Structure formats: C-alpha cells, structure tokens
Known about the structure:
Chain A is 24% helix and 21% strand. Chain A is α+β, with helices and mostly antiparallel strands.
Amino acid sequence: MITFTIDGYEVQAEAGQNVLEVALDKGFDIPHLCYHEALKPYGACRLCVAEVTSGKRTRLTTSCNYPVIEGISVQTSTEKVIRARKMVIELLLARCPDAPIVKDLAREYSVGRPRFTADNDDCILCGLCERVCREVVGPDAITFLGRGSSRKVGPPLEINPKTCIACGACVYICPTDCIKLKENEKERTIVRWGRTLPMKTCVVCGRSFAPWFQLEYFRKITEGIPKDFWDKCLDCR
Amino acid sequence: MEPTNVYAYKLVSRKEYFSPGHRACQGCAEALAVRLVGKALGRDTIAASATGCMEVVSTPLPFTNWNVPWIHVAFENAAAVASGAEAGMKALMRKGRLPKKKITFLAMAGDGGTSDIGIQALSGALERGHDFIYVCYDNEAYMNTGIQRSSSTPFGASTTTSPAGKVVPGQVTWKKNMPEIAAAHDIPYVATACPSYPIDLVQKVKKAARIKGPAYIHILSVCPTGWRLPPELSIKAGRLAVETGIFPLYEVEDGRYKFTVEVGILRPVSDYLKIQGRFRHLDEGMTGKIQKRVKEEYERLKKKVKMTQGD
Ligand SMILES: Cc1ncc(C[n+]2csc(CCOP(=O)(O)OP(=O)(O)O)c2C)c(N)n1
Ligand code: SF4
Ligand code: SF4
Ligand code: SF4
Ligand code: FES
Ligand SMILES: [Mg+2]
C-alpha cells in the first residue's frame, strides 16, 4: 500500500495505480478526456493537470500518467491548476465549439468565447478510439495521421480501414460522439472511417445479425466452438 | 441486434455499486439491470429505493450490497424522497454548507411501486422538474410478495391474482404504457431499456444523468421466478421481447422519438410467449389477439418516430 495526500486528505493506493484513478475513486473531481480505466494512460488532453509535490519540488503535471508514490502531495484545484485547465478548455472550445462535453466544461470553468478560430470538427484528438481498437479489440484499424494543426485520427491512407470489423467499440468510447454507426438489413457503416461491411443472415431464421467480416474474424480467433456457431444469430445458437 | 454488443461491454466500469452477494434468484435480470444502472451512474449517486424485490434482496439486516448512499423508502414514495434529497442538497450547496459537486439522484421502484401505488409521487416529481432520474424495474407483477398482478402485467399472463382458469384466461387488461405516461409530462428524457441490451441501457442511463431535469427510464426486467422461465433463458427472453416488438427500445429526447435498437423483421410474438410458463395456457385466439395489438402499437410508435424526427 502506498500512502499520499490529495488536497490534504490522506489516501491509500496500490502500487502501479495512477494519481487520477485514485483521486476519482475517492471522490475528487478532476476533469479528464483522454483517460479510460480499461486503457493505458496517454496524457494527451492535459485536462487532468494537478500540482504534485515530491520532496522539495512542486510541479504541474498530468495526473493520469503520474504513478502513485509514497509521501507525495497532490493538489487538484490550486490557482495554477485552474489556469492551466482553463487554457486547455479554451483550446478545446476553439477546436470543437459544438461538442456538448466541451461546452459543459466551458460552462463549469466559465470559459467564454475562444480567441482562436473554430475549425468545426468534433474530434478532440483524445486517441481513445485508436487505443481501444488496438488494446481491447485488436485489429488496430485506425491511427494518428499528420502533424501539427493537420493532425487527425483515421484509417491509414485515410480510406476504408481494411482490418476494421465494425464492432462499434470506438463509437461507444468517443467522448464527443463524432464516430457514428449506421446499420440496416444489408450493411453496417462506421461513418467516420468510411468502413461499410455487408451483413450476414442467420442460417436458421434468415434475419440479418452481424457483419460477415466480423464473424469471419471471430471464427479465426476462437477455438473449440462448433463449426456453424458463427453462422447463427444469438437466438438460434 | 445491438450493433455495439461485442467489445464495448469491456469498457463499462469494472466497479460494482450493487455488488455480488445479494439474494436475488438465479437468472434475475432485474438485479442485472440495477447493477448496470449503478455502473453507468458511478459513485456520486444517492439512491432512493421503494420496497420490492430489489430492496429485499439487497439489504437483509445487517448486510447491504449497496456501495453508494441508499435510502429505503416506503412502497409509494421513491420519487418524493429523491425530490427531497435533490432539493435539500441543492439548498445546502447554495448556502455553502456542502461543497458544490455533481451528484445524481436516483429514484427506483418496481412496476407496482411505479405504475400503481407510486404514480402520484412520480407525476408530482416529474412536473416539479427536479434534476433526478427515475428508473422503473418492470418485472410485470408484484414479485416480492408472491406474483400478484399489477397494471403493468401483460394481457394473458397468469399470476396469483389473475390466475388462468377455465373461464378467465389470466390477466384480462392490457399493460399500462408507463413510458408514454412519463413522456406526457413533457420531461427532457424518457427511454425504455432492457439488460439483454447492456450497452444501450448504460448509454441511456448516462445520458439521463447528463441531462438537466427529470428523466424516466423504464427497464423490462425478466423475472424467471414469476414468469415461470428457466433462469438460463432470461437474457434471451429480454431479447425476444424486443425482437417481437412487444417491448421496443426507444428514447424520447425533448419530445423527439427515436428507436435505439432497430429491429428489421419482427419475430412472431409466439417466439416470446411460448418459452414462459405464465403464458402456457394461451390458445391461438389469445395469441392472435396479442399479435394484433403488438403490431398496432408498434406501428403507432413508428409513426411517432417519423412525425417527430427531423423537425
Ligand atoms: C403500502 C404498502 N402496501 C403493500 C406493501 C407490501 N409490498 C411490499 S413489496 C410489494 C410488491 C412490490 O412489487 P413491485 O413494485 O412490482 O416490485 P418487485 O418486487 O416486483 O420488484 C408489496 C405489495 C407495502 N410494503 N406497502
Ligand atoms: S474520434 Fe473521438 S475518440 Fe477518436 S480521437 Fe477523436 S474525439 Fe477521441
Ligand atoms: S469499429 Fe473498427 S475501428 Fe472501431 S474499434 Fe471496432 S474494429 Fe476498431
Ligand atoms: S422474484 Fe423475480 S425479480 Fe424478484 S429476485 Fe427473484 S427473479 Fe428477481
Ligand atoms: S486525462 Fe490525463 S492528459 Fe488527458
Ligand atoms: Mg414488479
């Protein structure tokens, strides 16, 4: 067990945890956009900044990738922290003025109209979609592209990610809801990635139930399952 | 089918707020629904819980499996207690007696506690506009006291107070449409959900928490004990309720209706009815009546979706 303080309160954590997850678990409010408990921390949005004092040194740092260390003290809402957070929110607001999650943050931190120009894309470059596809799903279908102001997330070569199984995990995790999924009897599309896959119909009841390509992927990665398992819908299995 | 059903569930919180160790029956989808609601809302939640199965199984004195502040209230007043908690905390925060913090107020009750005895408290709370979420766990009867019919029990179902016999074929009234009653209050958010579609359920609860003002979520909660159904079929039964059109999954956001799980070709209602003992006595005539009614209601809902979308 590691003991340290957050805003003066003594807390205990397991070695290997990061400051943000412990703080959230104990009820401290630290806003965060690129952290998710199921994924490796990435430290990109810089919203989770806190002041950490270790020994004689105090510095402003992202808390999602700061490991818990015996004896440190963490401050979650000093003037410096709030100023840094406001700056981050202002930049986010300039980039994504319409994203509800960004608007909520701006309201909470009284950040007004941005001084920068808006480019109207709801993607905040948190990288959650890219990490979930690689770390949780597996196909590693999308990636960061470009640099600087033209940096974005998308399929390599920007069209039709060849390994995407249209599972929708990225759709679920995107904090700004800018990855949409569309489905009908014939096909499923992950709109943002330009990926459309034909649907398979159940060999028993004839209803469309999942993309072909996804089922073939499962057939490949699973063992010891009856041959026709992936040809039947959930109710007919 | 829920399109995000494959990996997204791994992204739902691993923390338990309605932890294992409760005493619900095997295969109880109501307990599963409560667990998912807890995961979606997280730790900063205060729950007011009417009496019923979920209270009885979770708090046999001196134990509890709740990991958030939880208030056991009477049968009829979950919505009133949640209103009071919300108004009280708001006042204390305004006066600086409590630190400002976003807290979710959850009122929960069964179908009896909602559509019968609790409807007055609920209607009042919705009308006053409290910032809270009301969740009805609908297992279609008063299960905790021994399977008595409620106004939410479906037509034809046999219960101990609507027994199927030679003259009367089980419940003779049609199920009260609670989500529509909630929507008629013109609140910002109303949704139906079912734990057989866990990601859809979690997303709706999260949305309800984010939206300011009252939200109502009606969760079909399969009860193997009361429905006379093998426990291993409860998830499938929930899916069949949706795929037959008996319990469509939709939401009403600021008056706009939207299906959240699209069903292509509806299955015949018999797929759902025939696996449950409570419908065992139904003959073709009764099943036909149910099929006709389901089709009509489904068409009516489709019209509402069409009418309110894109304006
Ligand atoms: C005023 C009042 N009448 C009756 C009861 C007895 N009672 C306790 S729980 C319950 C039924 C609960 O049914 P429901 O709300 O559908 O929840 P379920 O047990 O089915 O989850 C009844 C009748 C009571 N506690 N208070
Ligand atoms: S698309 Fe969504 S999840 Fe992906 S980087 Fe952009 S905001 Fe993040
Ligand atoms: S939908 Fe495609 S890109 Fe998104 S997580 Fe699944 S496989 Fe990856
Ligand atoms: S009676 Fe039904 S609702 Fe109550 S605990 Fe048992 S299965 Fe769940
Ligand atoms: S949450 Fe820590 S940098 Fe984004
Ligand atoms: Mg009930």
